[in-house]
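Lab notebook, page 48
Experiment: co-folding of the full assembly
Goal: obtain a model of how the components sit together before planning crosslinking
Operator: M.T.
Materials (sequences as entered):
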Amino acid sequence: MSISNIFGIAGTALNAQLVRLNLTASNIANAGVVAPSEGEAFKAKRPVFQALLEREKLNAGAQYIGGVKVEKIVDDQTPAPNIYDPTHPQADANGYIYKSNVNEIGEMVEMMAAARSYQNNVEVVNTARELMLRTIDITKT
Amino acid sequence: MNILPDTFGIHETALRARSRQLELLAANLANSDTPHFKARAIDFKQLLGQAQQDALKATNGRHYALGNDSGSPDAVKYRVPFNAGVDGNTVEMSVEQAQYGKAATEYRASLMFIENRTSSIKRALRGE
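Observation: model returned without errors.
Model output:
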């Protein structure tokens, strides 16, 4: 039945948005991390979403078709800003430290967008649940 | 006794189509942040056309077949966006929300029609 598919679809979306929200939280938490080299510097993490289409045969049956999944998590390739600070304990031989490339304002916007998408899908579930209950109640009238 | 198909008429098919529409819209909303995702929805006009064609079955070998004019068999079509996103996503949150609300109301309407029919059958059975 289609209505019960909605729970599966919205569930995948809630899951994906939660991953996105988690990554944002992780990025903001690590915004102040410094490293002694460019390679070791913290890179902001971004989820890549992918739609679950009909052609993907899922073990769980058809319930999640049309939903979304986090295909992979990629590093933001923006170069890490370096700062000359020879007194810093993490400074390299030339006296530079490498900060994370997290843009905190961008992360806040990302967080709000993820939260809105999450709320949207909660609302979808609520409406579907109400419709399903009413469908079950058909026989009572 | 073939009471049920005649009792619910088009509403049974309609309810199924409405719930399919809700499912598609839920999928659109779920993929509002997926790159290259194209929003889809049911074209109810085409669906009604198909339902009417089913009613007009060719009963004689010399009857012309009624051409299925266009579109996918389940009348699912891609939405034409007002402003497509730069990542190729055509889900517009406000449009989809409004359509989801509309589809939910239409589902309730179909449910109400069916409820009315069931209550009349019950009244008939009770002999009121």
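Interpretation: Chain A has a mean pLDDT of 87.
Next step: discuss with group before ordering constructs.
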